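Researcher: I'm preparing a figure for a lab meeting and need a structural model of a single chain. I don't have an experimental structure, so a prediction will have to do for now. The sequence is pasted below. Please return the structure as tokens so I can convert it later.
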Amino acid sequence: MLLLSTSSSEDLSVHNCDLIHFEKDASEHAPSNALRYSNKWFVGSRSGCSCSFRQLYSIELGFEEPVDWYKEDQDDIAATLLFVKIVKSLLTKGEGVDCIDLWDDILDQPEEASIPVLEVNFEKIGETEFRFFENHHFNFTLTTS
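Model: Understood. Here is the structure written out token by token.
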């Protein structure tokens, strides 16, 4: 499940298409302290859930562009790229954006359960390199320093 929060009051559902869709107010799906901003969204993919984005279970391989030896669905790649473009658009406007990628079963753990935070600076990580890592909290920035 992919949950996004932002300081922007922009209606993200205007970006809904076959590859990505935003549903308002996902706050009941996440631990209360997990998302940083007041406007919360569930982010779905072409499969209806959030499964059809570029994702890995382990962070060990890090951010990397698609490679021939690890087959990824072209629609998953396109959906992730669209997600990145939407996030970067919000960041360019000065808005804050973060998201968490987690399985439903993590919600059964105590709220104190720690979700590792990854700082993602899109000035350092290319759009095509980005992918999600399960059970991680992503804090997005767009800074040159």
